[in-house]
Amino acid sequence: MSQTIDNAFSRLLEIMAALRSENGCPWDREQTHSSLRQHLLEEAYEVIETIDEGRLEELPGELGDLLLQIVFHAQIAAEAGAFTMEEVVRSINDKLIRRHPHVFGNVDIKTADEQVVHWEQTKMKKEGKRSAISGVPRELPALLRAYRIQNKAATVGFDWPEVTPVWDKIQEEIAELREAVDKGLPDRVEEELGDLLFSVVNVSRFLRTNPEDALRRTIEKFTRRFTQVEEEFRRRGQSMTQAGLAELDAVWIAIKQQEKQR
Questions:
Q1: pLDDT in tens, 76-115
Q2: Is the pTM of this model over 0.70?
Q3: Residue 108 included in any domain
Q4: Helix 186-206 crosses helix 164-182 at what angle (to 10 degrees)?
Q5: Short-list 73, 1, 75, CA closest to 34
Q6: Is 109 within the bounds of a domain?
Q7: Containing domain of residue 241, as a range?
């Protein structure tokens, strides 16, 4: 099995090198680390979409597309004399062993929460970081970035002991947002809305729910139901823009009830 994987991976590296060679593909030869940024992001999101939709039979292909991006970057770097694919693999091997001393060493870690704390503290020591919340990419979606930053802050004790005061904080932020709206202060409205969203993310941590996943699921639910509303009005030969809000809402509620009965 190991030999088979080694052969397949070696073949992938050979193919990538050929594509980048003098007689290779013009498009592949033109690519740089910067030009591939968006492709890397898109492939990662396609993997996520495949997982979310339960299309596991398509997952090997999507993971292969994502792996190609890593191999592509490594080949570009190797040509420039920066690093090789072997260094990429060796780096993650070393990191996994270093950050799991309870598996590869004699450190006693019993729970996932303990592992998260140990992981972050080890990163700070090893990488010489001055801040517990550093290392969260700015390019992450805002909800996910907030979630990761809050988790990192919690590893050094900057966290509520339980969820009750977090609920109170949400109510406080709602009141401050409404006050800013009532006073007609647009800059403060944006700030207070951000504070409210940040507090909602904090609740999600205590509920052990990823806010990015939760919002994505709600967006898909709204999209599904809204398109069904559109289909219903097409079936009636009626335009949604000509229907009143009460009629639109009645169709929406009927679709929700139908989903719950399935």
A1: 999 999 999 999 999 999 989 988 888 888 888 888 777 8
A2: no
A3: no
A4: 160
A5: 73
A6: no
A7: 213-261
